[in-house]
Write a structure and sequence with these properties.
With 383 residues, the chain is α/β, with parallel strands linked by helices. Helix content is 38%, strand content 13%. The protein contains eleven helices and 13 strands. Strands 1-9-8-5-4-2-3 form a seven-stranded mixed beta sheet, sandwiched between helices. A hairpin with a 2-residue loop joins strand 6 and strand 7 (172-173). The structure holds pyridoxal-5'-phosphate. Pyridoxal-5'-phosphate binds next to helix 3 and helix 4.
Length: 383
């Protein structure tokens, strides 16, 4: 049986249809001017994105992973050093640390799926050089205790803001709390390019200068290579696309918050707990994640009705074969592991309609009633 898609997980086609007339001439200009590599669009976007984040500098790079990697390198972190990373994050956060020869030290999550600031002290060793809070699902991590922990121990703070473009707390934007803020513009992000792209925001002029070298063969002037570095540049076409889209980001984030509020209300009506959160202001709902008891069943009922869902992420980092060398088996991070078994990401994007949200919630309600005892519970917060 073929099921027509009623509710996609994200709808980048709908977004492009609305932006076509703004984006096409900007991309065409890059092609007409043949300014493909570090052309004026890159500088323009960097300036606008820095202003948006509230940082003095922005350096465009090829991806979020490159942003994290280059930020670590520019801060002088390398082999033998340790960086504290949440156990509950996308693997790229840890991979960036491993890629520069340092060691990620994982820390359990709190009830909001964010790094548990109360466990930071116990992760500290004489080799700890930095902490990398991740603003997972679009929610700003508890930066106050994280920053004061870092200050107390002379550590650098590298924010992984790859899922939190435009999230704000006390008037400050994600990516402006730490020494550096790293962003991914992977197409499905709140601010997404038409391919891979990323950026680093910082207030430190010297660091920005180093990052410019590290992204472009270590050169300030052509063929004058000051440090050993490869090619991690943001390309001009992506910068042009991002510069157009940036103007819409706050509006899109407002729409995501509106959609989250409707989900919250409709889910509460059927007795399902909405996602936990620290504050509403600090969340831009890159993902809208609930917990369910019988996830495979719920996903299959939703899928039969043409509703796409996701799991972010099904296998925690410490249980991935790639990180077997950490020697951490099942049971090392019970909250993270429990979340990985229960979380379900519902469709979330700015263009999502009220009818689509109601369809999703109706299907969850049905899935719950299709088997007894209820397969979905509102007691789903990790304990
Ligand atoms: C939390 C987090 N960190 C890092 C990354 C890596 O970004 P990219 O895919 O652009 O390399 C992502 C993107 O998926 C992410 O979600």
């Amino acid at each position: 049986m073929t099921v027509t898609m009623q509710v996609p997980f994200v709808d980048l086609r709908a977004q492009f249809a609305a932006l076509r007339d703004e984006i096409a001439p900007r991309v065409q200009r890059v092609m007409e001017d043949a300014s493909f590599i570090l052309g004026p669009d890159v500088g323009r976007f960097e300036e606008n994105f820095a202003r948006y984040v509230g940082a003095r500098h922005c350096v465009g790079v090829e991806s979020g992973t490159a942003a994290l990697q280059l930020a670590l390198q520019a801060l002088g972190i390398g082999p033998g050093d340790q960086v504290i990373v949440p156990a509950n994050t996308y693997i790229a956060s840890a991979i960036a640390v491993s890629a520069i020869g340092a060691e990620p030290v994982l820390v359990e999550c709190d009830e909001n799926y964010l790094i548990d600031a109360s466990r930071l002290e116990s992760a500290l060793t004489p080799r700890t050089k930095a902490v990398m809070p991740v603003h997972l699902y679009g929610q700003i991590a508890p930066m106050e205790p994280i920053s004061s922990f870092a200050r107390r121990h002379g550590l650098r703070v590298i924010e992984d803001a790859c899922q939190a473009h435009g999230a704000r707390e006390g008037g400050k934007a994600a990516g402006s709390f730490g020494d550096v803020g790293c962003f991914s513009f992977y197409p499905g992000k709140n601010l997404g390019a038409y391919g891979d792209a990323g950026a680093i925001a910082t207030n430190d002029a010297e660091l920005a200068e180093k990052l410019m070298l590290l992204r472009d063969f270590g050169q300030r002037k052509k063929y004058e290579h000051l440090v050993k570095a490869g090619n991690c540049r943001l390309d001009s076409i992506q910068a042009a696309v991002l510069d157009v889209k940036l103007r819409h980001l706050d509006g899109w984030n407002d729409a995501r918050r509106r959609n989250a509020r409707r989900y919250d209300r409709k889910l509460s009506e059927i007795g399902v707990a909405p996602p936990p959160r620290l504050t509403d202001e600090g969340h831009v709902y890159h993902l809208y994640v609930i917990e369910v008891d019988n996830r495979a069943h719920a996903q299959s009922v939703l899928s039969e009705r043409g509703i796409a869902t996701g799991i972010h992420y099904p296998v925690p980092i410490h249980l991935q074969p790639a990180y077997a060398d950490l020697g951490l088996g099942r049971g090392a991070f019970p909250r993270t592991e429990r979340a990985a078994e229960r979380i379900l990401s519902l469709p979330m994007f700015p263009e999502l309609t009220e009818e689509q949200i109601d369809l999703v919630v109706g299907a969850i309600d049905d899935a719950r009633r299709l088997i007894a005892p209820p397969c979905l519970a509102n007691s789903g917060r990790p304990s």
